[in-house]
Specification:
single chain; 141 residues; mainly alpha; two-stranded antiparallel sheet; 6 helices; 52% helix
Length: 141
Amino acid sequence: MGANTVKALKQLGVPEKTPFFRFHDQEIAAVFDPHHVLKCMLSLLLKHVTNAGFGVVVNGQKPTGTTKWAAMLKVYKIDKQNMLYLLSKVTDRHLKPLAQDAMKVILPAQLMSSIVAAALDTHVTDLKRFIMLKLVSSFVM
């Protein structure tokens, strides 16, 4: 863990055994090694199907659904084929990291960015819209 992170957390009064602190009446979780967390998350996504909603709350709601790496690969392929460039910073190295890339923090950080999340959401929303239009058109004919 970086010396700056340790110093900042000590100044906030965050003990190692209970890594939480309060700010404006809100409990904040302190992450002692965020770089390692990002790399582990990418590793887990590459190897496993994960379920959302394991106690995490975002904007007052628990996320639902399943995360599959195949979905990310599909969205990447669609984005590149259609030259949409929603995932302009994502490359093959992000999606199929080589051994030397496993230690780099920038790759999982870029994959887990808000831009990539928005691109995934856009593709999912468009896919749902396409399916609905196809269903409606099949009933009309």
